[in-house]
Amino acid sequence: HPFLGLQGAAAGGYLLYRGATGVCAIYERLGKDTTDPEAINITEHITVNAPREKVYAFWRELANLPKFMKHLKSVYELSGTESHWVANTPGNLIDLDWNAEITREDEGSYLGWQSIEDSMIENAGKVEFRDTLNGTGTDIHIEIDYFPPAGSVGRGVVSLFNGVFEKMIREDIQNFKKYAEAAEFKAYVGVTSTSL
Fold it and tell me: Over the stretch 22-71, which tens digit does the pLDDT of each residue have?
């Protein structure tokens, strides 16, 4: 379909621009400098063989995230839009925790969040869910950013924001594909291996 080709080309062009410059319009509006060398900026794309509505519902239940994201120790929902996150650090040296709020939600297709003011860690992200072309699976576009805190505590935490922590997060995102093909997830979404 010609429109999908143009849409894909535009998205690809934006991602190339963002990758080359480090500039992200979303985070510019939030006053975040994604070119900060100590920040972790992750953009990943995965496709899973499960219905979009079910995949979205799984991600929207934030307590599910540590099931496949090993860098997260726990996520507790405090209200319909606020949650408390605890992250493991490389070597499990310390726990980092913060509260976050959902900043945008389009049911079934988009989930965006950011940490609330005065959190130990500044974190923001978004996940977009789209049907695959054949309509049986879900394309997931994920952006996650971590910004180390300022001040003396921040200087100590900055050392944790290294390639190892970033690699953990990237692997966690890719782990969702494996998790989505496992029996536990299939039971959650109410499908059998023969129906996918």
Answer: 555 554 544 554 455 567 899 999 999 999 999 999 999 999 999 999 88
What's 116's DSSP letter? P
Distance of alpha carbon 189 from alpha carbon 78, whole angstroms = 24
Q: Where are the domains of the chain?
A: 1-33, 36-189
Here the tokens at position 77 are 């929902």
Contact 179, 185 (CB under 8 A): yes
- The enclosing H or E element of 98 equals strand 95-106
181-195 pLDDT, tens digit per residue, is 888 888 887 766 544
- Helix, strand, or coil (residue 79): coil
This prediction has a pTM of: 0.73
> Regarding the domain with residue range 36-189, which homologous superfamily does it belong to in the CATH classification?
START domain (3.30.530.20)
Q: How many CA atoms, within 13 angstroms, populate the side-chain half-sphere of residue 93?
A: 9
